[in-house]
């Protein structure tokens, strides 16, 4: 992970809503238990919109930022987009921060 990538990841975490999304996706069964599709697919974007209480476009921008930073991945199934945490990248990020600080 380059210094520029690390900086981009830190910027992605600078917004509280993006940190909330990562927190919710860590234990989706606690925050999205009423999702119709299996949580093994990830969490549907619409469920994240509802949990955040923000517009679809605002949440979509936050999800895109987290995805560009590598913290989450997405999968499209039919008309739905599902999101899940990328635990390997999160652990690499934490290890890199630990080295740097």
The overall pLDDT, averaged over residues, is 93
**The biggest beta sheet, please?**
3 strands, antiparallel
Number of helical stretches of at least 4 residues: 6
Order of strands across the main sheet: 1-3-2
The secondary structure category is: alpha+beta
Radius of gyration: 14 Å
Uncertain segments are none
Description:
The chain has 101 residues and is an alpha+beta fold. Helix content is 60%, strand content 14%. It is built from six helices and three strands. The chain has helices at 3-12, 16-26, 28-31, 45-52, 56-69, 87-100; strands at 43-44, 72-77, 80-85. It has a three-stranded antiparallel sheet with strand order 1-3-2. Strand 2 and strand 3 (80-85) form a beta hairpin. Helix 1 (3-12) packs antiparallel against helix 5 (56-69) and helix 4 packs across helix 5 (56-69). It is globular and about 40 Å long. The mean pLDDT is 93.
Structure in a nutshell:
This protein is about 60% helix and about 15% strand. It has helices at about 5-10, 15-25, 30, 45-50, 55-70, 85-100, and strands at about 45, 70-75, 80-85. β2 and β3 form a beta hairpin.
In terms of topology, how is this protein built?
Elements: H1 3-12, H2 16-26, H3 28-31, E1 43-44, H4 45-52, H5 56-69, E2 72-77, E3 80-85, H6 87-100
Antiparallel strand pairs: 1-3, 2-3
Name the descriptors.
3-stranded antiparallel beta sheet; globular; alpha+beta; 6 helices; 101 residues; 60% helix
């Amino acid at each position: 992970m380059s210094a520029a990538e690390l900086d981009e990841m830190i910027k992605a975490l600078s917004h509280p809503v993006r940190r909330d999304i990562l927190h919710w996706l860590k234990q989706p069964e606690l925050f999205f238990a009423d999702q119709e599709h299996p949580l093994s697919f990830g969490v549907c974007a619409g469920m994240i919109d509802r949990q955040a209480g923000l517009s679809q476009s605002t949440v979509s921008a936050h999800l895109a930022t987290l995805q560009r930073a590598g913290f989450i991945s997405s999968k499209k199934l039919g008309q739905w987009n599902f999101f899940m945490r990328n635990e390997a990248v999160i652990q690499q990020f934490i290890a890199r921060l630990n080295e740097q600080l």
